[in-house]
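Async update (no meeting this week)

Hi team, since we skipped the sync, here's where things stand on the single-chain job. The sequence we agreed to prioritize is pasted below, unchanged from the tracker. I ran it this morning and attached the output directly underneath so nobody has to dig for it. Comments welcome in thread, and please keep replies under the output.
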Amino acid sequence: MRIAVLDDYLRQSQQAADWSTLAQKCEITVFDRPLRAHEAAEVLQPFEVICLLRERTPFPRELIEALPKLKMLAVTGLYNRTLDVAAATERGIVVSYTELRGTYRNATAELTWALIFAVARHVPQESQRMRSGGWQTTVGITLMGRTLGLLGLGRQAKRVLPVAKALNMKVIAWSQNLTPGAALAAGVERVEKDELFAASDVLSIHLVLGERTRGIVGAHELALMRPSAILVNTSRGPLIDEAALIDTLRAGRIAGAGLDVYAREPLPDDHPLRGLPNAVLMPHQGHHVEEFYAVAYTDTVENIAAFLTGRPIRILSPERNRSALFD
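Output:
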């Protein structure tokens, strides 16, 4: 049996879990680079089991149908919007998931604050200048008592709240489904969308990507923001009109942006965002911490081992995948 481990850019899979039992029975190949759409079907032909990092390499119906040897897809996380679970199930392919447990569930919220602080205090710029011999070239701001706006108030946004409260920040929020009562229960104030963008000193995006939310932050919303405002996105890149954001940052119409996600990933080497000094960029590492890899790949190894015995565990059904997307 041949196993492919995809998108393991940092080759963490083999360090974070014990694959030795599987290695005695199977041939394991780790891909530490992204597979482009045009090459995935050819490269993955020999494999019966493919391990996916959630929402990295897309697995639509067309790719699944192009892999006749495929018997199992082992996915990290509880759901995957870029995997056609229904198509896999129709083919009799087992799809397994990994549990959400441990401290890594807070990792994205922690990175959100890392980006906020980095933009507010110009950490990357000052660090680079220190390394090149400079000294004190920018003036930052404090966050104490300012207004934090949350675009979305789901699980990740709620994990952002404790730090905001510690900084005595006023927190306002809006989403298409957010009610005043639900906002109040979370200890924040619901406002209308335009007010969210106009009133926030820091605006952090925490929405699920879907047809209703794609491009929800566009030129209109960015124009409402204060010149001193900070925009942070640790959710999904296509929530923002990237061209409008680039124009806004180039013109200095907001103070800066902290981004972990992009419309195209990995971000091309010549992408204009890379050249903007008021953009702090991370390579989509929201939940990619040691604790995540330990849980995800330990469960993955268990899932494959169970599959090989004919008694698969942690089965991801199309219904469960759809419900988790909107939980």
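Quick observations from my side:
The first helix runs from residue 13 to 16.
The mean pLDDT is 95.
Reply here if anything looks off.
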